[in-house]
Structures are given as structure tokens and as C-alpha cells.
Amino acid sequence: xxxxxxxxxxxxxxxxxxxxxxxxxxxxxxxxxxxxxxxxxxxxxxxxxxxxxxxxxxxxxxxxxxxxxxxxxxxxxxxxxxxxxxxxxxxxxxxxxxxxxxxxxxxxxxxxxxxxxxxxxxxxxxxxxxxxxxxxxxxxxxxxxxxxxxxxxxxxxxxxxxxxxxxxxxxxxxxxxxxxxxxxxxxxxxxxxxxxxxxxxxxxxxxxxxxxxxxxxxxxxxxxxxxxxxxxxxx
Length: 235
What we know:
This protein is α+β, with helices and mostly antiparallel strands and about 240 residues long. The chain has one domain (about 55-225): Immunoglobulins (Immunoglobulin-like), CATH 2.60.40. It has helices at about 5-35, 175-180, 185-195, 195-210, 215-225; strands at about 55-60, 65-70, 80, 85-90, 100-105, 115, 125-130, 140-150, 160-170. The strands form 2 sheets. Strands 3-9-8-5-6 form a 5-stranded mixed β-sheet. A 4-stranded antiparallel β-sheet has the order 1-2-4-7, covered by helices on one side. The radius of gyration is 25 Å and the shape is globular. The chain starts with 5 loop residues before the first helix and ends in a 9-residue tail after the last helix. Mean pLDDT is about 85; it is low at about 1-35.
């Protein structure tokens, strides 16, 4: 057997090292892509503060009959760029009673919207598209919206209610530029970073409605609501 040339041996070793490095790099790139696809949006609240206005939470009923009613909104006044945003709320169990949804400008006497949903309402995340009801928000006006389960029509003080505040604003130029041609998977990230809560939660919820098995979108929505002190137990 002829001895192996030293130069040839060096070349073989370096080639093997190169192939190993390439395989490692490819694996790292694949891992990075997976992590990136499952990144979580980060919500940055608007700079101008507002008093806490969110209502709702866990309701302690009879033994084994606890109930959670939430509006998917921050404690402070959440912002949207939409004239007719879609509002989301959550019930942890089926609701057999009528549900009344009210929207009113802060300081106003008469509500802009009083809409009643006849039961049953199934457990889970619910949506109310203001566009379907012909209701629009004025820029700069702060509104309060409430979801009330009417436990006894003769004693409305017993309603179980959740609510929050919303305000329509204009997106800044940087945000508008980022939104142009952005894929659907990036919209929630852009909206959340700009402090546009209702637009962020809507973009994720639209993805889930379009593809109910989209586990990544569900994880991102869960992560987003947790940043404002909420949790969707069954999401």
C-alpha cells in the first residue's frame, strides 16, 4: 500500500471539516427560522397615560361553577387606527342569557351602540365587528365599551359586566411605512410596537379565524394578552 501524501491528507481533513461546518450552519439557520416564525409580539403602551378603565375577570359562582368574562383590552385606553374596529371578548363557559354590548363616548349620556345577542353564546373568544352594525368611531374621542350578561332583566344591577376604553388615532408615518406590503404574519408585531392594541389583537384573531389550527397565531395572541394582565385559559 502506498503511503498517503501529507498534502492530500491535509486536503481531506479540511474538506471534512468544511462539510461538518456547513451542516452545522444549515442546522442553526433552520433553528433560527423556526424561532423567528414563533417570535412573540411585544406591546408598547401609548406614551400618554390614562386611568385604568378595564372591568371584568373571574366570577366566583357555585362550587365548580367559576366563570371568567373578559374583554381583550388593556387596563388603560387602548388605541386603534380603524374607524370601525372589531372588538373581542371572552367567556370561559357557554352563556345562555342575553348579552348586551354597549358603546358610549366618555362623558356622553346616550350610547352610540346598544346591541343584544340572544343566547346561547358559546364559550371562547367572541367578536363584534362595528362595521357590521354601521357604527364608526370619531378620531380622538375616547369611548367605553361594555359586555354585560343579563342575569335578571328585572334587576340589571345583577348583570355580570366586563368593559374597557378605546380611542381612534392616526398611525405615525414610520408605522404606516412599515405596514405597507407587510405580510399578515408581521402585522401584529408592527401594531403592537406602535401601541395600537386593538389593531394588533384583530390581526392575530383574523389569522386564527382563517386558520383555526394555526397554533403559532394562538400562542402569539396568548402572549399578547398576558402582557396586559389577561389570560385565555382555553385558547
